[in-house]
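Protocol step 4 of 5: obtain the predicted structure for the target chain.
Materials: sequence only (see below). No template structures provided, no constraints applied. The aim of this step is simply to have a reference model before the mutagenesis design in step 5. Sequence pasted as it appears in the construct record:
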Amino acid sequence: MVIERFIDEKISQSIYYINAVLNHVLHPTELDEFISNTMDEWTLLKIKEEAPNNAKERVFWHVIHEVSLHGAHSLNDNLYFKSEITTCIDFFRGTGSYPVDCIGWRPLP
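Step 4 output (structure tokens):
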């Protein structure tokens, strides 16, 4: 239950941060900081399971890893990346289907 609560809370926050960056209301470094803090908070939970429990969690980890890899500034610079991430956000909101090529995996402690 702790994992589900964590994921749900972070999904809500990530939607807010990503939309704010896309709408130029928030500087991309704020999203990068959020991602870093999320990873730090995850390690504090000391989760031993490796596989995500459901599709929502897989998409969440996919978003976290992709933004971490490309940097939040890429949301404004790379149309393909922006499309990929907005597809994930649509999935979270229930307005889109499971993203193609989505590979989300829990980080190991």
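Step 4 remarks: The longest helix spans residues 2-22. The CA atoms of residues 47 and 64 lie 17 Å apart.
Proceed to step 5.
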